[in-house]
Amino acid sequence: MIMKKSEKWKTIFKSKSLIYIVIAFAVAPVAINLGLVFTDIIYEKTGNTLTAKGLNNAEWLGFWKQYLAIAISFVGLCVAYVSSNTDRKHKLQEEQAQQYLEGVRQEENVLVDVTQGFNTSIVYKALLQQSKSANIYDGRMVLTNARANMDQMHIKFEILTELCDDFKKCENCRYLPCIDRKVMIELRDLFYDIERHYFNMLDIGESFLECLDKEQERIKLLETETKIQNNTEELIELYKNQGLTDNVYLSQQDLQSIKKQIKNLEKSKLRLEEMNKAISEIQKEIDYINKDARPKFIRYCKIYIDMKKEHARELRKTGNIQYNKMNEKL
């Protein structure tokens, strides 16, 4: 509180310094004359003088004329200095504000890229298309690209914004806790939360494609075994017609083995349940990102950028950033 009052008085004194100088020049002659009158009184009563005998009217008018000329010249110099100093100060504040605002624009662009990077629709569509395709290569490429893109967004977010600070500089801040820190921490935690759910969605997508790949192999093998079964049954009938009993016996043994293999392949349909479960979990992650986390992230991005643009205006106006104590509005 004492520091705030001291800074306030310093600011007031700097802004009113020229007025104080003018008042001092106006009052000084009067004070000097009163002092000389006082010495005259003492001289008349005691015969002693503290400084010198007071000036008479002619001398006083001459002194006042010279004093006014000097005072006007000095005040003119003061006005020129203050004006020049004010111009330099405004120019410096403008440069600081522009530099600060450039950083804000960079952060804004990064946050826009990050928000667009949370693209869940392209992943979901790719997985659905792969379920109807015989080749899962395209789906894996989509997941790989999405993962690489998110890694790039992570690097941008941590390097090109001020949102991943350790906030050590805030520990001794007189405004602790303040709105800026609350918004920054909330925005940072939201990003990491969405990122975690996004990567979880990609991991489930990988598992889905693995199941899909095995299911496609199962279907191909089942089709092949079914064809072999049909061919074997036809061969058995041929052997029967020809009376080749030994061949019939051997072919029937093969047929039993083939039927057993087909039965095992048909039991493997349980993977379909795993795939449906994976799709359900992916949809759950997508709903959380799109309906809950992403809108909140966008809202805090806007609050953060607006807050920093306001700080740029404060820098341009006063040369200082005015932080605010935390309230219950956010």
Compose a concise summary of this entry.
The chain is an all-alpha fold and 330 residues long. It has helices at residues 2-15, 17-46, 57-117, 121-130, 137-159, 179-242, 245-267, 270-318.
Strand tally is 0
Largest sheet report: none
CATH-scheme architecture of the domain at 103-318: Up-down Bundle
Query: Span between N and C termini?
Result: 26 Å
Assembly level: single chain
Which class do the helix and strand fractions yield?
A: mainly alpha
Share of helix, binned: over 70%
- Alpha-carbon Rg, integer: 43 Å
Categorize the overall geometry. rod-shaped
Average residue-wise pLDDT: 77
DSSP strand content: under 5%
Q: Which blocks of ≥5 consecutive residues have pLDDT under 50?
A: 1-5
Please write the string of helix (H) and strand (E) elements: HHHHHHHH
Highest CATH level, the class of the domain at 103-318: Mainly Alpha
Please give the count of helices. Answer: 8
Examine the coordinates and then state which fold CATH places here, giving the name of the CATH topology of the domain at 103-318.
Substrate Binding Domain Of Dnak, Chain:A, Domain 2
Topology:
Blueprint (H helix, E strand, L loop, with lengths): L1 H14 L1 H30 L10 H61 L3 H10 L6 H23 L19 H64 L2 H23 L2 H49 L12
Helix pairs in contact: 2-3, 3-5, 3-8, 4-5, 5-6, 6-7, 6-8
Keywords:
Substrate Binding Domain Of Dnak, Chain:A, Domain 2, rod-shaped, transmembrane, transmembrane helix, mainly alpha, 330 residues
Explained architecture:
The protein is mostly helical and 330 residues long. The protein has a domain at 103-318: Substrate Binding Domain Of Dnak, Chain:A, Domain 2 (Up-down Bundle), CATH 1.20.1270. Helix content is 83%, strand content 0%. It has eight helices and no strands. The protein has helices spanning 2-15, 17-46, 57-117, 121-130, 137-159, 179-242, 245-267, 270-318. Helix 4 packs antiparallel against helix 5 and helix 5 (137-159) runs antiparallel to helix 6. The radius of gyration is 43 Å and the shape is rod-shaped. The relative contact order is 0.09.
